[in-house]
């Protein structure tokens, strides 16, 4: 049942866009290559359960998350697809992982030793650190030792092996090639190749469409966002953005020249101006540093003025508008568009971070 919302501030998620991105990727991949939909961090702020369902219906065959809690949410929703936790899961989670068919990442000898007592069936993917410097096996002898350990503990079922690239989104490819090479060197130590070998994130799969093993991990670009400015200029197919952020005008006032607006009274109306209040603020993810970001009203860009408050902000209109006038902060309105990339540039960060800062206070509304 659809919940009733009172505040007119919404994140709208177009699930068809997500499905289209998956279908377009699928068409590009060899038929045996599976798509693992990355739904960590509440599906990059898009809503984990809804996105997981849409992704699976569009051809993704597995899911991946970062934490045990994220995996449990997916199982609690009744989704039975394979789930891989790509982050470090503690030994205290083994029982649940085994019961609920959640695959864990085996990333070090210490981790394997810490789970040694378990002795009930458990699926793992082995993580190779080929040059990212975070979790994973780096050295050949350490991996060899781990493989022997696993042989001796046959309740540990290795269903996959993977690595992660740190520079696949950049033009320069030397480090990428080095990582691919190092990964293959360590992969050669497996007597039997695990069923699913996977290396590519969105950037790697979009950039190097032929080298993908058995599965790819599709994250940011499943949501229609290019992993980097370099990749946005070099995409094999157009990405469709799924997310927009909208609100409505709750008050409009005509103010005289010099009228102070917002905390600190730092902004003063430059002339006689139409100032509107919007019910969205930094507690929603509209960070104070976005004070010079524009928003769309009647298909035109207008500026935020004054300091952004916790729950509200003010904009300067070109003309008076009725209460309830639609305002787009991210997304398209008529011929204009504000992309997540624009916020990212404005905040000197990456689009990934923007997806994660749109707070859970904003309801997500889904359309097909
Ligand atoms: C987050 C993550 C991904 C997804 O990366 P995108 O750039 O969003 O496609 C893939 N693999 C691992 C290990 C990750 O942590």
TrEMBL record:
Active-site feature positions: 40 (proton acceptor), 263 (proton acceptor)
Cofactors (names): pyridoxal 5'-phosphate
UniProt record, GO biological process: D-alanine biosynthetic process; peptidoglycan biosynthetic process
Top EC group: isomerase
GO terms for MF: alanine racemase activity; pyridoxal phosphate binding
EC numbers on record: 5.1.1.1
GO CC, any one term: cytosol
Annotated Alanine racemase C-terminal domain residues: 242-367
Database matches in PROSITE patterns: ALANINE_RACEMASE (PS00395)
Annotated catalysed reactions: L-alanine = D-alanine
Annotated binding of substrate, by residue: 134, 310
Pathway: Amino-acid biosynthesis; D-alanine biosynthesis; D-alanine from L-alanine: step 1/1
Pfam families: Ala_racemase_C, Ala_racemase_N
N6-(pyridoxal phosphate)lysine PTM sites in chain numbering: 40
Keyword line: Isomerase, Pyridoxal phosphate
InterPro entries reported in the protein's UniProt record: Ala_racemase, Ala_racemase/Decarboxylase_C, Ala_racemase_C, Ala_racemase_N, Ala_racemase_pyridoxalP-BS, PLP-binding_barrel
Job of this protein: Catalyzes the interconversion of L-alanine and D-alanine. May also act on other amino acids.
Protein family per UniProt: Belongs to the alanine racemase family.
HAMAP family xrefs: Ala_racemase (MF_01201)
NCBIfam families reported for this sequence: alr (TIGR00492)
Protein name: Alanine racemase
Gene: alr
């Amino acid at each position: 049942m659809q919940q009733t919302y009172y505040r007119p501030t919404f994140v709208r998620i177009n699930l068809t866009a997500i499905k289209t991105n998956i279908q377009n990727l699928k068409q590009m991949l060899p038929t045996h290559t599976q798509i693992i939909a990355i739904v960590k961090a509440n599906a990059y702020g898009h809503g984990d359960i809804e996105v997981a369902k849409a992704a699976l219906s569009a051809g993704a065959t597995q899911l991946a998350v970062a934490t045990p809690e994220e995996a449990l949410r997916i199982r609690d929703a009744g989704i039975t697809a394979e789930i891989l936790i790509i982050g470090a899961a503690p030994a205290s989670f083994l029982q649940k992982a085994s019961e609920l068919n959640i695959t864990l990442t085996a990333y070090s000898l210490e981790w394997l030793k810490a789970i040694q007592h378990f002795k009930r069936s458990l699926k793992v993917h082995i993580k190779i650190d080929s040059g990212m410097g975070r979790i994973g096996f780096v050295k050949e002898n350490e991996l060899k030792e781990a493989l022997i350990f696993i042989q001796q503990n046959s309740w540990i079922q290795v269903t996959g092996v993977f690595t992660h690239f740190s520079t696949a989104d950049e033009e320069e490819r030397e480090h990428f090639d080095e990582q691919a090479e190092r990964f293959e060197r360590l992969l050669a130590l497996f007597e039997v190749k695990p069923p699913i070998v996977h290396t590519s994130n969105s950037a790697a799969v979009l950039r190097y469409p032929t080298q993908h093993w058995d599965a790819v991990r599709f994250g940011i670009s499943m949501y229609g966002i290019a992993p980097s400015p370099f990749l946005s200029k070099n995409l094999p197919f157009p990405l469709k953005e799924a997310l927009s952020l909208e609100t409505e005008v709750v008050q409009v006032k005509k103010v005289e020249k010099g009228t102070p607006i917002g905390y600190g009274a730092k902004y003063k109306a430059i002339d006689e101006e139409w100032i509107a209040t919007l019910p969205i603020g930094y507690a929603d993810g509209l960070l104070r540093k976005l004070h010079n970001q524009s928003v769309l009203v009647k298909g035109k860009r207008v500026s935020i003025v004054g300091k952004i408050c916790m729950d509200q902000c003010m904009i300067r209109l070109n003309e008076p508008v009725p209460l309830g006038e639609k305002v787009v902060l991210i997304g398209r309105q008529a011929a204009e568009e504000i992309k997540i990339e624009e916020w990212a540039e404005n905040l000197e960060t990456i689009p990934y971070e923007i997806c994660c800062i749109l707070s859970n206070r904003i309801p997500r509304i889904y359309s097909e």
